[in-house]
């Protein structure tokens, strides 16, 4: 019991359930490409664990779409690394393209939630329509990254798209450069 003049503290369990409820609401907003949700996520310094959870669960689902246990572990490991690297590239390109101060942590939170669309890769091994799931997951994730970039960098959609295309194109260009 709290003293009469002291505010009551919440139990860890009630904080967890409240945060979990916000996670579902946020995922719903990301699926609707709701800019207000991206702004909320960006401003919530406690959203990093939720973003990590989204990336991990999504990568496990993508691994399940490959039908092998090793692929689940591989997808999860690569997704965590990819999330950090892609976010860093978007942040670096964005800092050059947009005047102002872009915060990496803000972008990291939002891009983590943008990975939710990769959950569609769970259907990638379905005969005949599997590639549709894969393409939908990739394209919708790109769209979500653009919205996240736009909101965090406070820019327009066209510039956010260009920033994402350049940032995502850098690793591809480097790979092709190494192949020569």
What key attributes describe this structure?
180 residues, 7 helices, 74% helix
Strand fraction equals under 5%
Number of domains: 1
Pick out the low-confidence regions.
Answer: none
Number of helices: 7
- Write down the secondary-structure element order: HHHHHHH
How many strand elements?
0
Q: Mean pLDDT, nearest integer?
A: 85
Helix and strand content put the structural class at: mainly alpha
| Largest sheet report | none
In helices, the fraction of residues equals: over 70%
| Rg calculated over all Cα atoms | 18 Å
- Globally, the shape reads globular
| Spatial separation of the terminal alpha carbons | 70 Å
């Amino acid at each position: 019991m709290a003293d009469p003049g002291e505010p009551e503290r919440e139990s860890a369990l009630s904080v967890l359930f409240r945060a979990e409820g916000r996670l579902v609401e946020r995922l719903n907003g990301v699926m609707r490409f709701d800019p207000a949700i991206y702004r909320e996520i960006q401003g919530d310094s406690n959203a990093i664990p939720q973003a990590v959870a989204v990336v991990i669960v999504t990568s496990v689902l993508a691994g399940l779409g490959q039908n092998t246990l090793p692929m689940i572990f591989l997808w999860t490991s690569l997704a965590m690394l990819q999330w950090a690297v892609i976010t860093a590239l978007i942040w670096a390109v964005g800092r050059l393209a947009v005047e102002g101060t872009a915060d990496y942590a803000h972008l990291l939170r939002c891009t983590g939630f943008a990975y939710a669309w990769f959950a569609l890769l769970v259907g990638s091994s379905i005969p005949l329509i599997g590639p549709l799931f894969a393409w939908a997951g990739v394209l919708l994730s790109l769209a979500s990254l653009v919205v996240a970039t736009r909101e965090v960098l406070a820019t327009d959609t066209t510039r956010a798209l260009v920033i994402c295309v350049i940032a995502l194109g850098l690793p591809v260009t480097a790979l092709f450069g190494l192949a020569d």
